Amino acid sequence: MSLPKFVLYVDSQFLSPYALSVFVALQEKELPFDIATVDLAAKANHEPPFVATSLTRRVPTLVHNDFSLSESSAIAEYLNDLWLGTPLYPVEPQSRARARQVQAWLRSDLLPLRQERSTEVVFYGPTSAPLTAEGQASVQKLFAAAEALLPANSENLFGEWYIADVDLALMLNRLVFNGDPVPERLAAYATGQWLRPSVQLWVHQQRPPL
Length: 210
Fold this sequence. Notes:
- The chain is α+β, with helices and mostly antiparallel strands.
- It is built from 10 helices and 4 strands.
- A 4-stranded mixed sheet has the order 2-1-3-4, with helices on one face.
- Helix 1 (17-28) packs across helix 8 (163-176) and helix 4 packs parallel to helix 8 (163-176).
- The mean pLDDT is 96.
């Protein structure tokens, strides 16, 4: 049987946390794929070739044969439903719903933190700019939720590893990599998740200078 053909469109600087999430999902499912980069700074995502490929004109976009899908959590669920390999979501309904909640929350909330500690601090180096009051409030909200979600003496949110662990770890690592104070337990969790081989493959992608 021939292997499925996948192309993953990501930003040209490999900074998108959502592209990272899909990249890891493909790696964990052991699915072969090609990477195509899109220069978002040059607005290449609004040019006809990409518009014809991506319904939302966003990265990540995954093309599977003649099917194209954007939005990272939708892509992860698609991959999880169709292929075996490492599960990306828990099977138990409440845990699965919680994992989806974590992903949706991290993509829609904590905007001051995401702006003031962009993923540039993770992949290019820290910033000296202090957090604003709004940023600090977002940080405390993140810490409170992460402390409530992460079981005691566990390396993962739901016992076994799932894709939501990557998403939460990256949000925490915006602070860890910048040298901002992070509770020891959460910093250890984020650091451990970052060492997962599928994540390290993204970390070591060749990035152009800023």
